[in-house]
Amino acid sequence: MTSSHRTQVSTVAGERELLEGWLDFHRETLALKCAGLGDAQLRQASVPPSGLSLLGLVRHMAEVERIWFRRILDGEDAPPLYFSEEDPDGEFHLAADDTFEAAAGAWRAEIARARELAAPRSPDDLSKGERHGKRFSLRWIYVHMIEEYARHNGHADLLRERIDGATGA
Fold it and tell me: What is residue 46's predicted lDDT score, i.e. its pLDDT?
């Protein structure tokens, strides 16, 4: 794996460009961690009792993008893709017919929608939706998303190394 396919974040950019650049960098990092693997490898769990897999992480990040940009930022009624009240961690519970192609398509669609929803807003703009009775600035959402991806990319590093020994990126 090489880092040449990722956004190079400016060291002198303004706030918005930095926030969007780091978010894209981390989105691209997760994609790189999954690159070149087959569905069986992407479904491999880390270590018992954890069921964490790269496929599960991609599904999780599709949900996270959907929640923070559609539901919170825009106030959209966007039902969950993979989880439910009965299975709150459903994105990590894979069925036999779940594929990376489907999950990656959903994830890319959520990223595209997130960009559309964020583009006309200022980082100071507050969300239309709430979570736990609170509204959030777009700036807060960007920082949270960077943190969320960074944490899960650490998991993805370990998963990828376990699968085929690849490190880096």
Answer: 86
Q: Give residue 76's identity as a one-letter amino acid code.
A: E
Reduced to 3 states (helix: H, G, I; strand: E, B; else coil), residue 56 is: helix
Whether pLDDT at 1 is above 70: no
User: Which residues sit opposite 134 in a β-bridge?
Assistant: 131
Over the stretch 17-56, which tens digit does the pLDDT of each residue have? 999 999 999 999 999 999 999 999 999 998 878 899 999 9
Cβ atoms of 91 and 56 within 8 Å: the answer is yes
Locus of tokens 């960077």: 146
- Domains in the chain and their CATH numbers? 15-164 (1.20.120.450)
CB 136 within 8 A of CB 72: yes
Asked if 24 and 68 count as a contact pair (C-beta separation under 8 A), the reply is no
As beta bridge partners, residue 126 has 137
